[in-house]
Amino acid sequence: MLGLSERRVQFTPDLMPSDILGSEVMEQAPDGSRAFRFIRGPVFAQLLMADEINRASPRTQSALLQAMQERHVTVAGQRHDLPAPFHVLATQNPLEQEGTYPLPEAQLDRFLMQIDVHYPDRESERKILLETTGMTEAKPQKVLDGGEIMKLQKLVRRVPVGASVVEAILDLVRSARPGGTTGRYADSIAWGPGPRASQSLMLTVRARALAQGRLSPSVDDVKALAEPVLQHRMALTFAARADGITIRDVIAELAGGIG
């Protein structure tokens, strides 16, 4: 538990942007005067959990663009600031399933990382089975609060990064763009990561080093985080997909060439 105010939104095809951001309603005062009042939507939380985000239409998905980038939303020309810290945690179903809509590239780019959740191994599934079907229910315990999270975020930004790591980040991100590499996957990339990918790598390698008790990150941290940071910021050509090449194949090849 992070001790944050949290809201969960189940994304569905009929969900509207106002269902997330909020809307203005007309209210009549006792004296007969009328005025609009803004009713805040679930986005006004420190942790917004967007469940199955790719089941909503692209129009509704895009409602989070300004919130995720600017930390405020604009409704009827009025700015409404979001609480701090503000995080969006989203799940999405495989695009092969019915009723899913691919997220716009600009939306994907605003997520720090993409972590794929596969089927659990047998022992983990056994534990899930036993602990979720009994009479007792495990209760999460709070380990942090919003203020502590913000202090940790500031601490991460203070972690020094060596020149070799900076160059490794730049080499990796720039090689993941069309025309940026000369390897066997040189013609496989349709579009690649922008500057946000470099920024995300810089922050995540610092956080990984700090979490492991190290004073500065290494090139190995860049390699370890290459896939979760880059995979949702790249796309392959149709020919590459037809040949069975995957994003993971390309990132592994690129990451192996740095350092």
From TrEMBL:
Pfam families: AAA_3 (PF07726), AAA_lid_2 (PF17863). Residues 2-113 form the ATPase AAA-3 domain. It comes from the Bacteria. Residues 186-253 form the ChlI/MoxR AAA lid domain. Gene3D superfamilies: Magnesium chelatase subunit I, C-Terminal domain, P-loop containing nucleotide triphosphate hydrolases. GO terms for molecular function: ATP binding; ATP hydrolysis activity. This is ATPase family associated with various cellular activities (AAA). It comes from Methylobrevis pamukkalensis.
